[in-house]
């Protein structure tokens, strides 16, 4: 199978690890060969930010580190066995901001990226070069080579203003009510090389349990990507269980765009023109039966361990195969 996965950060990365296991990617088979199945990840770059002269791509790096064996498993982001000497030295110089913590190992990745970008390489080429080291077992593409950044309109004692998504998410923990979420630069952005081709060749598309607004939603917001997906069998895995996000603060993002925090509401937001199938937790099965035009299936969705995550991914693949009439 050839599967395309538009993915965000932690939830998307962990789901991808389960999907690789479900498809037998990287697992030896008879004759010391591996499966012919392939996964192309279209990574969200709306979270990207430039700090201290470095271009930081949190979601691309989280996928790369998680699948390449370098992630901090407890946090789900950043490098394992990390130290923070550079962060401490920057603070000693009075450098701002202090709310974004760059680890020393992670900083090396950002330096390589910054140098390559300054030399004129597009983000897609830079990402490919970084993956040469980590060998994530998937083809990792940024959603676009153009600069797209998610900003959030808030109002506090400083007045009404737009701040970068990372400041809202990390510094304020999404506690400031978001009046609007804006994808700056998205309207003029183009899909990165390889993105539309991968979609055209895909047997199925799976939306992982990533943030539907600022992760999956950012990818779909690049002109041409959502339109290309409409011709494909698309199965989504709900990021909402029992009226609450599986992880993170997706409820604050959904509230900003006027969408209820429920599995049914997220499916309706994504749309029956896009979604063919929707995998929900058993707790949400009854509430999702009223979703029109989308085949809803239920099973336990907590990615509590590798085996559970693999089972969820396998269920998503099985649903995609069923809905494609066996073509996948």
Arrangement of strands in the largest sheet: 5-2-1-9-10-13-14
Structural class: alpha/beta
Strand content: 15-25%
Total helical segments? 13
Low-confidence segments: none
What gross morphology would you assign?
globular
- Report the span from N to C terminus: 6 Å
Largest sheet: 7 strands, parallel
In helices, the fraction of residues equals 25-40%
- Rg over alpha carbons: 19 Å
The overall average pLDDT, rounded, is 94
Annotation, overall tally of beta strands: 14
SSE pattern: EHEEEHHHHEEEHEHEHHEEEHHEHEH
Detailed description of the structure:
The radius of gyration is 19 Å and the shape is globular. Strand 3 (about 50) and strand 4 form a beta hairpin. The chain contains 13 helices and 14 strands. The strands form four sheets. It has a seven-stranded parallel sheet with strand order 5-2-1-9-10-13-14, sandwiched between helices. The chain has a three-stranded antiparallel sheet with strand order 7-6-8. The longest helix has 18 residues, at about 305-325. Helix content is about 35%, strand content about 20%. The protein is α/β, with parallel strands linked by helices and about 325 residues long. The mean pLDDT is about 95.
């Amino acid at each position: 199978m050839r599967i395309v996965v538009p993915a965000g950060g932690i939830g998307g990365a962990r789901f991808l690890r389960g999907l690789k296991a479900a498809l037998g990617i990287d697992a030896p088979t008879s004759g010391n060969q591996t499966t012919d199945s392939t996964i192309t990840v279209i990574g969200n770059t709306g979270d990207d930010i430039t700090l201290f002269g470095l271009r930081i791509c949190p979601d691309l790096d989280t996928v790369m580190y998680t699948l390449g064996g370098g992630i901090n498993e407890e946090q789900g982001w950043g490098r394992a066995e990390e130290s923070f000497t550079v962060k401490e030295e920057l603070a000693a110089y009075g450098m701002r901001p202090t709310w974004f913590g760059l680890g020393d190992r992670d900083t090396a990745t950002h330096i390589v990226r910054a140098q390559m970008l300054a030399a004129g390489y597009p983000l897609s080429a830079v990402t490919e070069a970084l993956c040469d080291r980590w060998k994530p077992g998937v083809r990792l593409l940024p959603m676009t080579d153009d600069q797209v950044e998610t900003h959030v309109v808030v109002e506090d004692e400083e007045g009404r203003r737009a701040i970068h998504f990372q400041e809202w998410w990390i510094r304020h923990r999404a506690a400031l009510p978001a009046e609007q979420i804006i994808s700056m630069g998205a309207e003029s952005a183009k899909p990165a090389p390889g993105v539309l081709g991968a979609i055209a060749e895909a047997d199925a598309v799976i939306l992982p349990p990533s943030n539907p607004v600022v992760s999956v939603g950012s990818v779909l917001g690049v002109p041409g990507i959502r339109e290309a997906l409409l011709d494909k069998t698309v199965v989504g895995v709900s990021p909402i269980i029992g009226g609450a996000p599986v992880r993170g603060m997706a409820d604050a993002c959904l509230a900003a765009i006027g969408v209820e925090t429920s599995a049914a509401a997220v499916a309706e937001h994504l749309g029956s023109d896009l979604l063919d199938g929707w995998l929900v937790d058993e707790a949400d099965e009854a509430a999702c039966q009223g979703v029109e035009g989308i085949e809803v299936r239920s099973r336990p969705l907590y990615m509590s361990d590798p085996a559970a995550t693999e089972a969820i991914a396998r269920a998503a693949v099985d649903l995609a195969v069923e809905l494609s009439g066996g073509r996948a």
